[in-house]
Amino acid sequence: MHRFRAVLPLLALVLAAACGGGDGGAPAAPVVVRLESAAIPWGDDIPARFTCDGDDVSPPLAWSGAPAEAQAFAIILEDPDASGFVHWALFDLPADAASLPEGASPGGALPAGAAEGKNDFGRAGYGGPCPPRGATHRYVFRVIALDAPLGLEPGTPGTRVRAAAEEHAIAEGRLEATYRRP
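Above: the chain's sequence. Below: its structure in token form.
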């Protein structure tokens, strides 16, 4: 079942590209970056240690398949069930970065040049899933390959980081998971 769920986002992107028309020629295939976490299988529950009910530290992440022209990366964690609430906005990761260890944020060792925006909790860095008690929310980790570093100030609001990253996106990968507060 996990393998099938891991293919769903890729299949959706391929189908979306195939349905495009553009200039009447064959649609360009989207570049999909593979995003994974050893601690969070795609579509599964997020372990409590990565949430407000645990240690509230970022999970390990690894990505591959970014286009060679990527100049930097951004990582966004958002909650689509809370109107896109931004839990993490990490940007200007170097182009040769391909992973982050568990606990890279808050206060961990980020790659040189990387900066963190302010999440919607009002603080810079990672703020883990924290839905209302008894509620299950979906969370989307996004790694976005950028055509240029964003050059924003550390502490820039996460919504601004997300918008800037989307303007400079040349490829993207997603990891979706859920969390239900006890």
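The radius of gyration is 16 Å.
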